Amino acid sequence: MYRYAVSIGCDIEQFDKDVRVHASKVLHHVQDDAQDAEVMDLNSTPTFFVNGKRHKGPWDAASLIRALEGQHA
Length: 73
Hints:
The chain is mainly alpha-helical. The chain has a two-stranded antiparallel sheet with strand order 1-2. The protein folds into 2 domains: 42 residues, no CATH class; 30 residues, no CATH class. It starts with a helix and ends with a helix. The protein is 63% helix and 8% strand.
């Protein structure tokens, strides 16, 4: 992450300060999201929901359009 920050021209001292200040807050959010995903049995990305139901079919555009259209029938 630091190498990328340097490669795009970030002020590395400010970047380091920001990481130290915000790391625990960000970690908490990531852990919370991971726990939510585990509870909902979401183990891959992307995961699509159509009207609150998990779409378990293919993820190509045509399949997703059919799933959306099927919800309006």
